[in-house]
Design goal:
about 190 residues; alpha+beta; globular; 5 helices; binds coenzyme A; seven-stranded mixed beta sheet; 7 strands
């Protein structure tokens, strides 16, 4: 069946709305369970992540349908004295993936970062299950050679970011254990 884009709006998540906190935490569990099962193994760890993303100096935005269902979440926090923002996390409900919600969340995040006068967004996207050509091998000593021939084997999200104008700028070998690197992505945000 063809998926369609539901009506939704993007709102700030605040400290008070516990129902939205729980929905965002469930989304995190659901969205990462398949390819990153260790990222947030329990609802409790996912709720801790929601709480960490809240705060005046941070960005925490939800995509919410007209009926109040949370179908996407994006967060981020300032780094390098606020010149650069780290995007973390982003997740779209599996039933609604592939219809543009992730794109809408990233564009909204870029607007939020621009408003704060920053110049750069970066993020790390892990490969813990050989989803790319960088997974499952020893990247040393020619790390940059491996990086320059990066390929996706199984829908790794680095391609999602590339479609939105982001560049692969680095990799941390074995970041999550041997053969499980973190791929670093960045984009300049024009004011
Ligand atoms: C990655 C994610 C946020 C993308 O959100 P989405 O709503 O599915 O993305 P969109 O529908 O806006 O997709 C925009 C484009 O990126 C592509 N894309 C999306 N996810 C992709 C992936 N994992 N691999 C390759 N391409 C992808 C889409 O096919 C689409 O391409 P098109 O413009 O040629 O049609 C979402 O799939 C998700 O939550 N995944 C699980 C959690 C995750 O991977 N988070 C990111 C960790 S760094």
């Amino acid at each position: 069946m063809m998926k369609t884009l539901p009506q939704f709006k993007i709102i700030d998540l605040n400290y008070l709305d516990e129902d939205l906190h729980h929905q965002a935490a469930h989304l995190l569990l659901l969205g990462f369970a398949h390819d990153w099962p260790n990222a947030w193994p329990t609802l409790e760890t996912a709720l801790d992540e929601v709480k960490e993303t809240l705060g005046e100096e941070k960005i925490c935005r939800l995509a919410v349908t007209e009926s109040g269902e949370v179908i996407g979440w994006i967060g981020g926090f300032p780094q390098y004295d606020g010149q650069t923002w780290e995007l973390h996390p982003i997740v779209v409900h599996p039933e609604y993936q592939g219809v543009g919600i992730g794109t809408a969340l990233v564009l909204d995040f870029e607007d939020q970062v621009r408003k704060r006068g920053a110049t750069t967004i970066f993020l790390g996207t892990d490969d813990e299950s050989e989803m790319t050509s960088l997974g499952g091998i020893d990247l040393y000593p020619d790390v940059l050679e491996h990086l320059s021939s990066l390929k996706s084997r199984r829908s790794h999200p680095f391609e999602f970011y590339q479609k939105l104008g982001y560049s692969v700028v680095g990799v941390i070998p074995d970041a999550n254990g041997p053969g499980k690197p973190d791929i670093i992505i960045a984009k300049r945000v024009e004011s």
